Amino acid sequence: MAIEHRAELNAVVYGLFRAPSLDREVAASMVEAMIAREYFVDGPEAYEKALAQALSQPDPVTADLEPPYGEAEVRAFLKLVHEELVKQKPWR
Predict the structure, then answer these.
(1) Residue 58 gets which letter from DSSP?
(2) Are 61 and 54 in contact (CB under 8 A)?
(3) What is the pTM of this model?
(4) Residues near 68 by Cβ (< 8 Å), separated by ≥ 6?
(5) CB-side exposure of 67: number of CA atoms within 13 Å?
(6) For residues 71 and 32, what is the distance between their CA atoms, to the nearest angstrom?
(7) 67 contacts 10 by C-beta, under 8 angstroms
(8) Stretch 3-25: mean pLDDT
(9) CA separation for the pair 65, 75 (Å, rounded)
(10) pLDDT tens per residue across span 54-80
(11) Which member of 66, 75, 79, 88 has the lowest number of beta carbons within 10 Å of its beta carbon?
(12) Long-range contact pairs involving 85-90 (C-beta distance under 8 Å, separation at least 24)
């Protein structure tokens, strides 16, 4: 099954080219940018949906971009971002 929300997923993966690390602090900072719609113009709900879908499928999340981290590292980070989005869930 293909990832339907690839543009939103790629926007998050693209951010990893400048990420100093893939820890929870960086994930939380990325979520704050999503909520503020800084760099992530589609809003946090769109990115939450994209991440949920991508994480539930075996398709490579780095298929379109090659960030300086491996697939497993990126998936682990995307899980952190998703957890932070769900925790804050600003679109309630």
Answers:
(1) -
(2) yes
(3) 0.92
(4) 16, 17
(5) 26
(6) 24
(7) no
(8) 92
(9) 13
(10) 999 998 999 889 999 999 999 999 999
(11) 66
(12) 85/31, 85/34, 85/44, 85/47, 85/48, 85/51, 86/48, 88/31, 88/35, 88/44, 89/48, 90/35, 90/44
Is there a contact between 9 and 52 (Cβ–Cβ < 8 Å)?
no
CB burial string 21-41: b at 16+ within 10 A, e below: ebeeebbbbbbeebbeeeebe
Q: How far is CA 10 from the centre of its chain?
A: 8
Residue 1: pLDDT band (50, 70, 90) is low
Q: Tell me which residue has tokens 């900072």.
A: 29
Residues 6+ away with beta carbon under 8 Å from 74: 13, 16, 22, 61, 62, 67
According to the model, what pLDDT value does residue 77 have?
98
Q: Residue 75: name the closest of 85, 62, 88 by CA.
A: 62
